Amino acid sequence: MNTNTSEKIAILGISDKSERYSFKAHQKLLENGFLNQVGVSPKKLDIAQIEIVESLDNLIDTGVHTLTLYVGEQRLESMIESILAISPKRIIFNPGTENQNLMVQAAKANIEVIEGCTLVMLATDQF
């Protein structure tokens, strides 16, 4: 499933550190025309061209198309209910985020599950 550039993309685990992959994904999404982004982080961040919310609960009923994960698989366990509640069309499990429990539950909820790298997907026109 390729994503239209107008769709909402949520980055769980966004960082304001330029060396972090979540920040690089945000930048690369912008470069590819994905301007409708929201970052999820409990930290107070100020990152250009992205709204930051502190909880997944802030995204319920906001129409998230793609949720791209940058949170370790163990930390995701306590977020499964909230992730499913936002009902994204797809979830991208970037390397290191592969939580089998979430993958199974997402698939049962008819959410597309992708084990891949957002940066690679963007670079190869698979996003």
Automatic annotation (TrEMBL):
CoA-binding domain segment(s): 8-122
Any single Pfam family the record assigns to this protein: CoA_binding_2
InterPro entries, per database record: CoA-bd (IPR003781), NAD(P)-bd_dom_sf (IPR036291)
Protein name: CoA-binding protein
UniProt organism field: Vibrio algarum
